[in-house]
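Session log. Operator J.P. requested a structure for one protein chain; no other inputs attached. Running the standard single-chain path with token output.
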Amino acid sequence: MHGCSRIRRRSLAQVFRLIVFGLMLTLSAGALDTSTVHAGEIVVATYEGVINPVAAEYLNDALTSAQATSAQAVVLKLDTPGGLDTSMRLMIKDMTGSPIPVIVYVSPSGGRAASAGVFLTMAAHVAAMAPGTNIGAAHPVAMGGGEMDNTMKEKVENDSVAYIKSIAEQRGRNVSWAEDAVRNSVSVTEHEALKLKIIDVVAEDLPALLKQVDGREVTVSNGRTTLRTGGASIREFPMGLRLELLKALSDPNIAYLLMTIGTIGILAELYNPGAILPGIVGAISLIMAFYSLQSLPVNYAGVLLFILGIVFFILEATVTSYGLLAIGGVTSMVLGSLMLIKSDAEFLQISWTVIVPVIVTTAALSLFIVGMGIRALRRSPQTGSEGMIGTIGIAKTALRPEGKLSIHGELWDAVSDQPAEEGTSVKVLRVEGLTLYVTPVLQKKEA
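Structure written below.
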């Protein structure tokens, strides 16, 4: 009996241990499964504007930050009219070489992925668009200072076609449409893009996007991985003040305004020496304008015409031309503004809403500043020995020829070129040291 009881107790203990062990395995598996679903975060980078070195640096920073925190994925919310080929290729290299999946999300509604944006969207591990967006028109345009001949255009076009086809093949997207986007500048809506297998997802917002891509397998630089975005936290990755400033400086309208402010500031300092503030503002603005212009396709004939227009306004204030120089200044500045940026790309053109106010303001300020400077140069001195010349004083003693003279309540030694009695009004002719040389002022006799 006792042996059977011991066997029974031992069996129950073993069963109990097995149950506990099974529960621990279940809990551990559940914990592991939960950590897999919720592990990591989603880094969201938002870029709106022209693709340029700032955009390339921003994406690189976002990917670096995501790798440092072992993020699940990086979402690049993109709205761009296109941009520089070199910057676009740098961004694509970072995306294809990233061990973390990159999701390009064309948003918000009304946004677009044009030109360079097409390449970036198709190069993403997951391509998505918001309702009301479009993608396409990737035909390359001249970004340099001169026009491309037919041979060069063909070379650039063929290079772009080969590049976008390789990207489309790598990501399993529509190769035929990708070629048409470059050769024929075709553009489609988000729903058409989804049907044509240009993109993978159409999502109303970011939560909907993350829900749709959860569980999707993608190929990154170190192999295949599965996106676990359903329960991941979202971390916005802001651009930062430095990149925001550099991005603003890359705008041709900002460059145009800086060049204008810089020119006017230097002009104001030259015609009003000692003002200091206009010179400081002008010098800083010109340096920032030069930085901005170096990243843009500048036509130097436009720069010279712009400066010539300001010179004409200066001459108008100093030379009697009956308005001809002012007309020449306006004409020169308008032509210079139109020729300043040499590119067919719409997003690189200077807006007329900027050109017209700038020219009008520049003309008014130039005439005003130069006029003030000229009036100051022609104005007779008000202080010092030069300011005494022409001043009327009263003889405190008889001047025969020497005596004392009172001017502005001060008593001076005076020498008169003609005898003058005490109380006579005399005018200062010149000043030598502390002695005034004067002449009597003839008083009109009353009838």
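Operator note: The longest strand covers residues 41-48.
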